[in-house]
Each structure stands twice: as structure tokens, then as C-alpha cells.
Amino acid sequence: MQKLPFPQDDPQTAEAAWQRLHRDFALAMREVGRVRDGGAGSPCHSRVDERILQAVWCDQMLRPEAMQTASGKALEVIEPGRWNTGPGPDFLDARIRIAGELREGDVEIHTQSGDWQRHGHHKDFEYNRVILHVVLQPQDDRPYEQKQNGDRAERCVIAQALEPDLETIRRTVNLSEYPYGRPADLGLCHDQFTRLPEEQLTEFLMVAGRSRMEAKIKRFEAQRATASFLQVAYQALLTAQGYKSSKTLYFLLAKRAPLQELAEHARDCPESERVEFFLSALLHVAQLAPSQLQLPPAIDEETRLLSERLATLWNPLRPYFVDRLIPPTKRWFRGVRPAGFPTRRMAAVAELAARLTAPGGGLLTQIATMLQATELDRLNAKELRAFWKSLRGLIVVEGGGNYFSTHFAFGGKKQAPQALLGQPAAESLLFNVFLPLVILRAREQKHTGLEARAWLAIHSFPALEKNSIVKFMERRLFGEAMPVTGLLKRELFQQSLIKIFSDCCAQNERTCDDCTFLSLADRIAKTGTT
To answer: What is the pTM of this model?
Structure first.
């Protein structure tokens, strides 16, 4: 087990250590001559928002009735286009109608309307096929943008058309689920990263990963200001079930059907019916229950009986939640394979909700108890594997006997039994939700021993499946020969690559123009300060 490079009881130390290593790395890059003269200016933090807006456009998280051009013409999006991960406009080959006229071409996305000219698109022939400039906020009252060939592109301001609001989208949408380009070349930092001795590289990645985990804890801490511990866990569980734009719907569902309120209503419910009670509430508030859907006239007996049970459980709840129902939307199913249909996802969450609210402290207490009872730094490899198997077993939902273990949707064809929440999903929840929550609870209770055990778990946690950002950053930083190959066998180090992409690359996958190492080194050179 690697020794932690900073005290566990001071969360501020993690960010301070990250800032120090960031600065030292920038200076080292300059010393070896890798930093270009002139630099790239200040890091462009607006790219984070721009990529959020690209996700909004990709999945049309917009109210159709509110869509219009800046000149007041009706706008209908038929096809948002293909997300472009190379040079040029953000979306290619879109199809829209403006005032009833069909137009085909490209779409460019910006946070501010002035970025069109700041980025030089008005002088770039690659943007001559742009038919729509989508912006969050206008900086002038001009309804169009000038193109290099003299034509004009209509402008569309989407601030008032977002569904749901921007803050909810920012908090729930996982940008790693959207396309990223493969770097055409190695990053400017490649030489310096591959030159670092193993000990220094390990420290750099460990500190970056620790800083990212602290950010997760901080987000949960912010939610604790208005929600109980169980509600924060429940919100995270539900949000994790979504894919791309549907994450916002799951988060909204957690708010409209809060866990402790459901638990109060379920207090007199027989133990054997608690899971179906939670499922009935979730499905009805989401308007995905059988009585709210258009099912075939003839359904099988198993489906009919379940529908009746869910309706019976919902009837006493209806007066409390009728004004909180989520408007019907196809976004629940957009881009989702049958195994990930919301009906199955909610069945899994219903089981976990019952575990969270079980007598004696529930699931969170069970996880904390297992961590306290295990000295992870003394386990051999076999014992460590057995420990992880036991811990994720608290979260896996096999679903034996559950209707949705053999059905993707109500009335659908019966399938071979499948777990409602399998091993990969359970491991992801354990690392990204439960371990950060255990640390937060330990800090609130000033339980330093529990926090230390949770951090040891995070440091030894086996790597999850690589997402697109991790794969991208492996290539950008290390090329084909990844040094210290054992590092990325642990999830903390994969998290470090996501942290570097967010903080140091400023979410820019196309070029190194927003490199914060480069801009910091230039700033230090100009001011003479370190």
C-alpha cells in the first residue's frame, strides 16, 4: 500500500498539494524547452460550459416550444447533427427548419455570442456551412453572424429554452459519456511526463486523484446543507442510473420523491412489500407506471398482476405526490439499450432504497462497519479480492424473482434472468458514491479512524472500466509506452487522468491551446514569481 503523501484529516491539504505539483511541473516543462514562446494565455475555463452546451444540443435538452432564432423566427430541430471531434464546427450535417424552411448544414456552439468573432470563424471558410450559431447568452442584439463567404448564419439564444435548468444539467450530466476525439499528436506535456522518475510520477498522479476525490466529497457536502445523509446517497444512486441527458430526469425524480418521505409512508408496509412500494412510487412519479403508459390490450398474467399490485400501493400515495409528477418525456429511453431501460433501473434503486432505510442504520452503516473491521494494508492480494467481493455484494442487486430481472419493460418478451445492478455498476457506486459519503460522515462525526480506513480503500481500489477520457489521456500524456504500468490498475490513478484533463487541459481535446502548464510557466517567466 502506497503511503499517503499528506495528512488524511485536512481536506485543504489535498488541493494545496495539487497546486504545488501543478506549479512545479509547469516550471519543469519550461526548463526543458517544451513551452512555446507566447504561451496560450489564461486557461479557458469557459470550455467546460461550452462542452455542457454541446451536450445540451446533442441530446436536445431544450423545450421545443421555446426554440426560436434571435430574429424571432420559429425554429424546429429535426436532426442536431453529428458531434465533430475534429477541426471545424461543433456539429456537422444538422437539419433544422427556420420559419418552416428546411435547412441543412453545420451548427456551432458557444457560451457567448462574441466568441464567433473572437475565434475567427467569420474569416474561416470551414465555417461557411454553418446554418445556426447556438449561444447561451448574447452580447449584442445582432440576430445573425457574418461568414467568410459573405453569407449569414442565424443566431439562436437558448438560455430560456433549457430543460431542466443549467445548474441541474451541470450537476447531473456526465461529460465523459459524450464523444471525445483521439489526439492527433502527443500532448505538449508528454516529454516531461515520460521523463519523471517513477516516484515523482506516482506522487503527481496520486495527488491529482486525491484532489478529484476531495471534489466529489465537497459536492456531497454542499448537498448536505439542504438534505439528509440518506437523501444525498439516494440522489447519487438515482442520478447514476441515467445515461447522458436522462441523468437530469433521475436527479429530478430523487427531489420529487424524496427517500425519507417515502420511508415514512412505507413504515406500516409489510417487509415483503417494501421494495415494490418504493418501485411503485418511483414509477408513478416518473409517469412510467403501467397505468400511465400505452400498453397492448392483451398482456400476460404476470404483467397484469404486477400492474395491479403497483396501482394498489400507489393509491394511498397519490394525494401526496400528484402535483409532483414529472411530465411525460421520451428522454427516459433516448440512447438507452433495453437492459438499461428506466423500469429496470428504478427496480434496482427500489431495492437499494429498501437497504438504505433498513433498521439498524442500513446500507451506509454496513459499509462503514466493514471498513472499520478490516485492516486493508495488512491484506494480501487474495484477501483483498475477497474483501472487495464482500463489499460490492452489499450493493449488487441480483433481482431474483423480480419481474424486471426477466423483463426489460412492462409486457415485454420474457428474457433470461439478468442482475438488475451487476458487479461493474456496484463497483462504480462503491467508489464514486459510498466511499466519499463514508469519508464525509466520518468528518462530520470527527471519526478519524473511519476516514483513514476509507482512504486506504480508495487508494487500493481496483481500476474500473476505462471511460473515453481515461483512454484519451493515456494517449495524450504517455503515447504507446505507458510508464509504471501498474499505476492504472488502481482507480485512483485513472481518476487522476480525468483531473488532469479537466484542470490542465481545460477540457480541450482538440489541441493543447488551453494548456494550463504552458500558461502558468509563461506567467511565472513574465512576473519572475513562483
So the answer is: 0.81
User: Do 403 and 268 lie in a common domain?
Assistant: yes
Question: What is d(CA 38, CA 361) in angstroms, rounded to the nearest whole number?
Answer: 58
Strand partners, 144: 154
Q: Would residue 250 count as lying in a domain? A: yes
DSSP secondary structure code for residue 94 in this structure: E
473 domain-assigned: no
Phi then psi dihedrals of residue 35, to 5 deg: -85, 130
Rounded to an integer, what distance in angstroms lies between the CA atom of residue 346 and that of residue 290?
14
- Buried b vs exposed e over 234-256: b needs ≥16 C-beta within 10 Å? bbbbbbbbbbbbbbbbbbbbbeb
Residue-wise pLDDT for 224-277, tens only, equals 999 999 999 999 999 999 988 899 999 999 999 999 999 999 998 899 999 999
Per the domain annotation, does 177 fall within a domain?
no
Q: Measured between alpha carbons, how far is 208 from 191 in angstroms, rounded to an integer?
A: 19
Any domain includes 504: no
- Per-residue model confidence as pLDDT tens digits over 381-431: 999 999 999 999 999 999 888 999 999 999 888 999 999 999 999 999 999
Full domain range(s) for residue 116: 51-170
